[in-house]
Write a structure and sequence with these properties.
35% of the residues lie in helices and 29% in strands. It is globular. The longest helix has 26 residues, at 278-303. The structure holds adenosine monophosphate.
């Protein structure tokens, strides 16, 4: 019995910046499960001086004593290559997130009484491919089979609307501890579709805390006291007091911060006793709240909807309890936001609903998600006099396309006997390719030695987890090359993932019931961490590049302008240059970029020669 439950049970996890929750389908309903006495577990990890790993509330409490051994708000670093230290040990952000996920897994298993192997994990709609991939990696390191990476606003709208059948357009305003997201979601018939999403991965409760903390500290200093920021313990205590005060100001016009013996001077204890009014707090945070409305307007604009077409405004994330947020939303959208689903649990509930559906408990509704970014290769357009303009972006899957998406564009070689296309894959909206995020690169080679105009089909497939497959096919021969971009920048290599999991296992060795639940053959369930180029052709491929778009515009696929190589060389050398040299180099880089963008082929050679000379001279 336990085994069959384990096989089919899929949990829904809201992996939040500040807190995390797990929901599961049980006894005919979705339930946010009790994680050892609380539904909400702080997303905090700490390594004790004795080397033992602590996760959750205990870790949060440790943060005051051992800030250098504690990781908070790790979600903000997901997708980056930063190294996070816990004491003298270093981890990647996905490893820290895996610790949180593993703890959730252990606690969920204790609660349910059987192993849990599968999970749906939520991410902000605005998360890039790299951030999604890092989250997926974290799930795998933790020992889950990650069934789906789900956008948080989609999850929230499911939690609010899962039992409704009529057409509705809702705005989901999600302000959590570290990220902000706003989405316009349409529920029609039996489908839920995210029409548009906008957000800021660096705006959240932590920023509000910081503003209040600095204000309180400045006031304390003005009263003649020393700066608590110079004393670790005092700063830790004050940080926690600030968060408590912020929460109280959500339902009280005034609150007090009382911290006895916060500091001492010449052996005399110094106390803090300060009243804070909601008005003062609101004056401080107003710019942050207004900043969030820029995304609200953008999302509405992108969705093609007007505020008065919204049927409901849904609140998600602990910070949406802030009265100023609710007030401004009501003023701007002329609609009182709904608060009937617990804003801290809505995302987990929605993840649980999708998890239950994937587990076979179908409630008759279908999810349609959208991509928050465009994806496409770098290309070159033909300028005047047949001179190609490089560094152009040719988005194939457009922002806002429902997922899963599968789109193909036709390109054509420009050079005779062009056998190769260096395909640089970008994510973003800027018409200049290099101003977007490059998420992958591969060489399609082996094209036939034929005159320019050889048709090349490029297909982009984006799955429901936001993971991309790119295929290039030479139309003439059907030869294809395919790359799976599971490892957009920041993803971990398979070997590193394996090491990370072994490392995690050793930390959790004290929980033997857990190791039993890990899939035995790690290599089977770990996605390949490195960009994998699967050649599906039967003959060896060799080539160069060039193409004509369906609209007839000549596109030179993947032309690598020598200027790009020079720019990269210059940029790599910027660090460590003297200020004067640096500004000269920067000026030339800017000039060359402008020349490339404007297709100014007169100035470009001169600017390149100048930069080349300067770099040579600096050598
Ligand atoms: P989440 O990431 O959704 O868990 O949101 C956590 C954020 O919400 C943290 O910054 C909390 O301090 C904040 N928060 C929780 N409760 C309240 C409250 N009552 N008033 C204001 N902010 C809150």
């Amino acid at each position: 019995m336990a085994d069959s439950m384990a096989d089919e049970t899929i949990v829904g996890i809201d992996l939040g910046t500040t807190n995390s929750e797990v929901a599961v389908y049980r006894n005919g309903a979705i339930e946010v499960i009790d994680l050892e006495g609380e539904q909400i577990m702080p997303s905090v990890v700490s390594l004790s001086p004795d080397g033992s790993l602590i996760v959750g509330t205990a870790a949060k409490n440790q943060a005051i004593l051992y800030p250098e051994r504690t990781a908070i708000s790790i979600k903000r670093r997901m997708g980056s290559d930063e190294s996070v230290s816990l004491g003298d040990k270093f981890f990647k952000p996905q490893e820290i997130s895996a610790m949180i996920l593993r703890e959730l897994k252990v606690r969920a298993e204790k609660f349910l009484g059987y192993p849990v192997k599968k999970a749906v994990i939520t991410v902000p709609a605005f998360f890039s491919d790299a951030q999604r991939q890092a989250t997926r990696d974290a799930g795998v390191i933790a020992g889950f089979e990650v069934m789906r990476i789900l956008n948080e606003p989609t999850a929230a709208s499911l939690a609010y609307e899962s039992d409704k059948t009529k057409n509705r357009i809702v705005l989901v305003y999600d302000l959590g501890g570290g990220t902000f997201d706003v989405s316009i979601v349409e529920a029609h018939g039996d489908a839920t579709e995210v029409l548009a999403s906008h957000g800021d991965t660096r705006l959240g409760g932590d920023d509000f805390d910081r503003l209040l903390l600095n204000d309180v500290i400045e006031e304390f200093i003005r009263q003649g006291n020393p700066d608590p920021r110079n004393t670790r313990l005092a700063l830790g205590r004050l940080t926690q007091a600030i968060v408590r005060a912020k929460h109280e100001l959500s339902f009280k016009p005034y609150t007090r911060i009382r911290e006895e013996n916060l500091l001492e001077r010449d052996g005399v204890p110094l106390h803090m006793d300060m009243e804070i009014s909601r008005q003062r707090y609101e004056d401080l945070i107003k710019p942050l709240v207004e900043k969030s409305f820029e995304s609200v307007h953008k999302a509405l604009n992108d969705s093609g909807k007007k505020a008065d077409e919204l049927d409901a405004v849904l609140l998600v994330g602990g910070m949406t309890r802030t009265p100023l947020v609710i007030r401004r939303l009501a003023e701007v959208l002329e609609k009182l936001p709904r608060t009937d689903v617990h804003p801290d649990l809505a995302v987990a509930m929605g993840a649980g609903i999708l998890a239950s559906r994937l587990g076979g408990h179908d409630d008759g509704r279908v999810l349609v998600d959208i991509t928050p970014y465009s994806f496409g290769p770098e290309a070159a357009t033909m300028g005047d006099f047949g001179i190609p303009i490089a560094d152009r972006y040719a988005p194939i899957i457009k922002k806002g396309t429902p997922l899963p998406a599968n789109e193909t564009e036709e390109f054509a070689t420009l050079c005779n006997n062009q056998e190769k296309w260096e395909v640089n894959v970008f994510q973003g909206e800027n018409p200049i390719a290099s101003r977007n995020i490059r998420i992958g690169q591969f060489i399609a080679d082996g094209f036939s030695k034929v005159p320019a105009g050889n048709k090349v089909l490029c297909t982009f497939e984006l799955d429901l987890n936001g993971i991309l497959n790119v295929t290039v096919v030479e139309k003439l021969t059907g030869l294809s090359k395919r790359v799976r971009i599971e490892n957009a920048l920041g993803a971990m290599a398979k070997d590193d993932m394996k090491k990370a999991r072994e490392n995690l296992d050793s930390f959790f060795a004290a929980a033997p019931e857990l190791s039993e639940n890990l899939p035995e053959n790690l290599s089977d369930d770990l996605p390949d961490g490195s960009t994998e180029l699967a050649t599906q052709s039967t003959k060896p491929l060799e080539i160069e590049a060039g193409a004509v778009s369906p609209a007839g515009t000549t596109v030179l696929a993947g032309l690598r302008h020598p200027a790009r190589t020079l720019l990269e060389k210059a940029e790599a050398r910027l660090e460590g240059m003297k200020e004067k040299d640096r500004s000269d180099v920067l000026a030339l880089i800017t000039r060359i970029r402008a020349d490339i963008t404007d297709g100014d082929n007169k100035d470009l050679p001169a600017a390149m020669a100048e930069l080349d000379d300067l770099l040579y001279f600096l050598d």
